[in-house]
Design goal:
The chain is built from 26 helices and 15 strands. β7 and β8 form a beta hairpin. The protein has an eight-stranded mixed sheet, with helices on both faces. The protein has 669 residues and is of the alpha/beta class. It is 48% helix and 10% strand. It folds into three domains: 39 residues; 196 residues, no CATH class; 394 residues, Alkaline Phosphatase, subunit A (3-Layer(aba) Sandwich). It holds the Pfam family Sulfatase.
Amino acid sequence: MRTQVNIKKRPPVELRPDLLLPAAALAIALLAGLLLYGLPLGQALCWALAFGALLPLRFSVNGRAGRGLSRLAFVLGPLLCFFLVECMNYNYAPWKDFSLLQIGLNLVWYYMIAGAVYLLAGRLVLSAGISAGLFVLIGLMNRYVIRFRGRTIFPGDLLTLRTAANVAGNYDYWPDEVQLRCLLALALFCLLLWKLPRNPGRRLPRLQVVLPLAAACAVYLCVFFRTGFLSWAGIEPSLWTTRGNGFLLNFSVCLRYSTVAEPEGYSQEALEAVRAETEGDAEAMGPAVGGQSPVNLIVIMNESFSDLTETFGLETNEDPMPFLHGLTENTVKGTAYSSVFGGTTANSEFEFLTGNTMAFLPDGTVPFQMYVTPGMPNLGTQMKALGYETVFMHPYLSSGWNRTAVYRDFGFDRILFQRDFTDAAFMRNYITDRSNYENLIRLYEEKEAGEPLFVFNVTMQNHSAYNVPWKGLDKTVWLTGAMEGRFHTVNQYLSLIRESDSAFQYLVEYFSQVEEPTMILMFGDHQPQVATNFYTEVLGGAFDTLDAGTAQRRQKVPFVLWANYDIPEERGTELSLNYLSSLLLETAGLPRTGYQQFLSALRETVPAVNGVGYRDADGAWYKRRSELSEAARASLLQYEMLQYNLLFDDEENRLADFFTLPEQNGGST
């Protein structure tokens, strides 16, 4: 007698009636949320249907088929994430924007990271979810950085997380449409992973699979970081965007070039030749010191201070800086070209105080975090050697950009931060320029009469973001003409600049009544990241597509040098921030180091140099040094040698007496 056994085959996919209600609720909530964000109705319906259709389903495959689905999900995850990250990186069609080599090099990093996660987690589905979440999180962060700073994330940013945390609460993190879509795609992918069968325990790959893959990864890393493969492939780091590279590839390329190599022909003999040439030029020109020198020398690096109306020909209801534009008596005014845009203020501080340039340092690095050492020559120690009390003032937190340690290494007598400011008034959560200057004046009034005072003051009022509530700020200046009503962030910024101009007028009028000779220099650290599409419009295209001269318009910041006594007046001076301190000392009639004399001579050949390009004596801009004349290239090579000697060479090989005044080396003036 045969016994019949009925075997019921489970369908590969079955409906779950118990999940229909929550699925419908989720779909409705999702649809409502999407509509609130302003997505088109058709897109909202598609997303809602995708979630609603997937929720009631359950895959009932096991064994080999189940493992196959898990492997497929693990393989497809990095591909999906590459697309999502590039969409958030403003590369909406990576298959068009990148070559096959660039796509492949990006994917290698995605798969290596996903493989490392799998080795730790031991489960394919779990690893696919963790790595996907990690990649999308990085993409979200990068889009915020581009929105707030106008540039992509660099390896050096990992050293500045504390600084970023200081100002994190002053930005609007409401996700835009692209971020929302990518988050929904990630949620859909994770929901799909949740439906897949999961292994009961931790399963590691077999050694015969791991060892060859590990060897291949080791070879790839060696070729990538230790050979000239990138140069051969024509892949270079991008400073502002990642078009042509992709996010992970650009990040790794910047990491590859984050070390600084010796300049070509670098030697002690070459350095001594530069020193001898500089000293010979100085003797031929005669003494540079003369005239009246200030008892009080005040330098103000004004946060995000720039003249957008003049730089881009904007129409506004009124002039945002009438006092500065009208200031002419005993004044030197002009334009400085910064190496940074939208942020990384510390690099402007570094260039001004040391005379060094970011042009010779890896893209995305921050010297304050990486290269400053105790006793490094700078304007502060130089002023201290000349008998000035040296004070650094910054009306914000002390943890930003490693400033406490840096200014201690720079030898400043006093270092003042927000906690040291009294009777502070705030605007958009930052201490105002007016309140900042009131504290500066109080500092001056407390010193002994006739005591030389040097102050380096980095303001905070105009810091981004510019889409936050106008707390303590009146709307006084706004765009008119074709741009009226289009860029509200620009309007907030222009109103801030109007407040800065008024505060500077208050400072100048106060010291115009002071008997002690006083000189004040104010300059901007960089232009503001008000809106990416604003700059695309006024510049005529995306930054990385612009010619060298047009690109430099985004690097322009004004400077004004005023004294309450007679000094030669000048207008229209153009230079870069690394030259500005030499110009200050020359105008103030104070002794300059050999390095500063070299920079003054170099400025005749290369009037401006920054992290974006070079300007020759004829006024033409170039993005690459190789495009300059032979004389300009030779002078820049000498500059690079001197900077390398100062920052990276062993101490016993350093031309110490070239970077400092004679009295700082135990000699006489």
